[in-house]
Amino acid sequence: MNELIEQCKHKEVIAIVGPTASGKTALSIALAQALDGEIINGDSMQVYQGLDIGTAKITVAEMDGVPHHLLSFLAPTESFSVADFQQLAREKIAEITARGKKPIIVGGTGLYVQAALYDFRFTEQKIDETARQELYDALEQYGPKHMHNLLAEQDAQTAATIHPNNTRRVIRALEMLQQGTTKSDVGKQQGDVALYDATIIGLDLPRALLYERINQRVDTMLTAGLEAEVRNLYDAGLRDVQAIQAIGYKELYTYFDGRATFDEAIEALKQNSRRYAKRQLTYFRNKMDIHFINPLTDL
Question: In this structure, what CATH number is given to the domain that contains residue 152?
Fold first, then answer.
């Protein structure tokens, strides 16, 4: 741990990334206390109010007095993009640095962390709410497969990366086509130039152990009240919003809808969490210059 602190001491920004259940929270608090740091949330779903247990959001007790930013500041009905995060995270980095503190970004959403630290550029496009509603009306009338086929006819490359049931992403891709661009074009605007003198620490556990910890975390979430948390959102009528696409929420929605038994929903939750962890690790290994450590042996 002392060696890691020394490596980070003179850096402008620290980032801690890793798959779900890898130990990011504990390390972030230890580093923040050692480096007089403040933490910026880098998880795309922890920005939402009311999504606490299912997103493994840090509790006030776990914060142990360390200031945290960009947590629970949006209603679950609101949309939030990587471009939004980029702007807010960079503002927080500047504010924290101006106070003489060390900014530490912590989260598992690799694209968010990368967009904040590198020269990503995003095309600013105003959302046409009327056109968006027409697409959702078509979705309700014709179904997900039809909408995915429409996307495939116009942008096969993007369609190949989106599951037909991920209707939010399908609709967004169709919106972009109506605005004269494609998700593939936007992807080409990804920057490779680092904007800060930063150290990115990646947590990497043996795969079998990571999967075991993920399964245990789901069980712990259920004990902590995950079902009731999701039921509150369900009973509030939240549908077709970005927040409900989060793992842990969409699976329980299938149970509440009667499309799955409780046990089937929980098994899907565990499986989706494990698959997501695998995708996270793939992204981290291929997209950023990361110093990987095993938190069980290297600290």
Answer: 1.10.20.140
Instruction: Kindly tell me if the per-residue pLDDT of 192 is higher than 80.
Output: no
Indicate whether 187 pLDDT > 60: no
What are the tens digits of pLDDT across the range 129-139? Answer: 788 889 988 99
Judge if 230 and 90 occupy the same domain. Answer: no
Q: Which pLDDT belongs to residue 183?
A: 63
Whether 257 is in a domain gets the answer: yes
Nearest to 288 by CA among 39, 109, 103: 109
- The full DSSP string for the chain is -HHHHHHHTT-SEEEEE-STTSSHHHHHHHHHHHHTEEEEE--TTTTBTT--TTTTPPPHHHHTT--EESSS-B-TTS---HHHHHHHHHHHHHHHHHTTPEEEEE-S-HHHHHHHHB----------HHHHHHHHHHHHHH-HHHHHHHHHHH-HHHHTTS-TT-HHHHHHHHHHHHTT--HHHHHTT----BSS-EEEEEE---HHHHHHHHHHHHHHHHHHTHHHHHHHHHHTT--S-GGGGSTTTHHHHHHHTTSS-HHHHHHHHHHHHHHHHHHHHHHHHHHS--EEE-TTT--
The structural domain count of the chain equals: 3
Phi/psi of residue 178, nearest 5 degrees: -65, -25
pLDDT digits (tens, 9 = 90+) for 147-170: 999 999 999 988 888 888 888 889
User: Where in the sequence is the domain holding 233, given as residue range(s)?
Assistant: 207-278
- What does the block give as tokens for 87? 């702007």
pLDDT averaged over every residue in the chain: 92
Q: Is residue 103 scored above 90 in pLDDT?
A: yes
Entry pTM = 0.80
Check whether residue 48 and residue 74 sit in a common domain.
Answer: yes
